[in-house]
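Forum: Protein Structure Q&A
Topic: Joint prediction for protein chains with partners

I've read a bunch of threads here and the consensus seems to be that you should model interacting components together rather than docking separate models afterwards. I'd like to see that in practice. Below is the full input, 727 residues plus whatever partners are listed. Could one of the regulars post the assembled result?
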Amino acid sequence: MTRFALPVALLILLEISVDARFIPTPSVVATGAYELIRSGELWRHLALTLSRTLAGFAIASLVGIAAGLSLGYYRAARLYCMPTIEVFRAIPGVALLPLAVLWFGLGSSSQIPVIAFAATFPVLLNAMRGAEELPSILVRAGQVMELDSMSLFRHVLVPASVPFIFTGLRLSIVYALTSGVGAEIIAGTDGLGFLILDYQRTLVPEKMFATMILVAILGLGLSTVLRAAEGRLLSYRHPS
Amino acid sequence: MKRLLLPIGLAILWEILARSPLGDPLYSPSLLQIGTALVALVTSGELVTHLGASAVRLLGGFTIALVTAVPIGLVLGSSSPMKRHLMPMLDLMRSFPSITLVPIAIVWFGIGDLAKGFLVAYACFWPMLLNTMTGVEETSPVLLRAARVMEVGDLALFRKILLPSALPSILTGVRISLAVSVIVLIVSEMVAATSGIGFLILDAERNYLTGKMFAGVLIMGVIGASLNALAQWTERYLLDYRAAA
Amino acid sequence: MAAIELRAVSKRFGDVIALTDTSLSVADGEFVSILGPSGCGKSTLLFIVAGLEQASGGEVSCDGVPVTGPGRERNVVFQEYALFPWRDVVGNVTIGLEGHVAAGEVEQRARHFVSMVGLAGFEHHYPHQLSGGMKQRTALARALAMEPKVLLMDEPFAAVDAQTRESLQEELLRIWSANRMTVLFVTHSIEEAIYLSERVVVMKPGGVKKTVSVEETYPRGYAFRTSEVASSLRIELHELLR
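Posted by a regular:
Agreed with the consensus. Here's the joint model:
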């Protein structure tokens, strides 16, 4: 119990000492959250942010896993592609938002590509490492059993890379949400990111803080789901 | 040579598309347009201004995070009572995605360098802190016992044992924090700024200077890739002793 | 016809010469050990027979058929077990059977070989839940389940403790006596080579130094390990390895 003493004390201190327009005090955040939920304006924005993030993340996962495993398995492909990938990877997704808006217009149609771009690289690089670091002894074991290349891919390469892929996915979901909210802040007309900026501009700090906390909860929720999926898929590593 | 094959191929493909009836100078500028914009950016000194502004914010914020997060992480990681008391609060604070702080940073610090520096520092602080703590926690107890036998003092323990053994983990934290902080920096430069590489890109788009916008994005990629290479090199240099094993 | 036949085999890795002009013939059903210090090329020789490495020169054949790559009639038990960590004991055995044995029989056959190596009751344990000895039993079951004519073993018991090693050796001899496949067994342990094999091929860096026969009938009990015959062989082999 003592471990909650300090945070609770701090929250009480916050509550009584600071200006609620600048620093979120517990009572202000609670009021904001209550108002947001009661008015119902929140759900539409939450649904939009969540669907954009998940759509971009889904595209990124498919592209990242496929490209990453192939690049990891074929040394030659790495040689040709890596320098170019390094340059693309260094471009933060949100830096491409103006371009995406120019090409695809405002809203989800430009935000999803930006999210997908940002989220592709972590999973790609980790899947690549997984395939690259595939223990050669397992390949040899597969070879003496005369597994064909399809079975070798399905029964050896993919399962051996799954732990690496999940490391990438956990990073990717953070990039996806960060880029999605960032894109909504820069040029959004809806979504949680837009909401935060809008409440700041229209001077409604209690709702702004409440929305910020909602984004935090969303991030934690998405990471938790991924972690649970990982735990199930990799249960063979833990004593049952 | 092989490394250049793909970029050259992509460039040729791009040029063909840009010059075909499908292309439109407004949406897909030719390489010539992009190149011209790039040269203009360099010769006018505009590039230096914006790159410089972004670099100051990034380096400033990063340094502040580094000199605070690493010592705090070393202490917290090695003291379990402190960790027990502070962790719930730290968990609460780090779960705030730094991106959501962009609007409030304007309220707190205005639209200048201070706000951006704060955002970068905040984004960098958490990954560095947590990775430092992990690194310390994973220090082999055998090493600590050996140090105790040799009567290594408290300060020397931090400097000579905990820091080096946490170093690989700290460097991982550095890499993650740089990636996230660049996103936050670009967003904040696009929302409210008059300088910086994010501003440059958005401003070019708003004025339909597509060639300039592409040049900005490209510069960003090349600089970022060079920085990554530098970070990798540093990491290899610092952790060079591991290669021998 | 010899089960394994190497004629003037050589192997280079870049500038490093691993084997030169090495010849060896192993009869059908014979148990032969290859004994030598580390780095003498004994594992390379084994992998060449397995088809995992290509000889730089010379000829390798099994039952008169030239070896060009890995084949199901030759199976390998690796020192590092090489188990798939995401498959349980039975799953590791079935992987080589899937698509080669009628689908309905795969599981049953795998279980048969799992109990043959003494792992009945551990069918659904994952590799990380097994001791080193049990891992190697699983790897042995996996190799045996494919019913190879030739079993190639690369220092299979080097990573387990002494007691486990002895019981694994006895187990291996029991299975070999019942099935009579050809075994080529790489080891750096003199005792192990004497206890297990009919012939010991002593290697020096780059090739074969001498072949020594072990004149002792099977089954070999524990007493054989400390017998006069074994002791004098031990001295002879020790001298050869110096």
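The longest helix of chain B spans residues 154-191.
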